[in-house]
Amino acid sequence: MFKVEDKINAMVKKCYIWAARIEKESFTNFPTLKQILKSSEDSLLDQIKGNGAEHLCSLATTFREYFPEPDPDDSWIRNPFSCQEIEKIHGLTEDEQDQRVDLSSCGAIKNNFNGE
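Request: output the structure for the sequence above.
Response:
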């Protein structure tokens, strides 16, 4: 699940970067489009700059609608040894909070976790 989240975050960032590049007339990420624009009129370039950048920004927004930003309070799941206030982790019972403290304090588990 976290790997998918990472890929979605990367894609959203790339959409904004690519949109900015298109506005600067850099089509490195779109080699076929780059070839077409070399042999076309300037009016097509102007249309592509506006529409292409707008589409990529819209795509990034749509990604976020379908896949919202992850809850930062859940980052402990990815790294149980990260320093967070245990009481602020929502959805855990008191017993689970105690177990979380035991887990995050175990040096052997931490070494094993960091080794992989």
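The helical segments are 2-23, 31-38, 42-66, 75-78, 94-105, 107-115.
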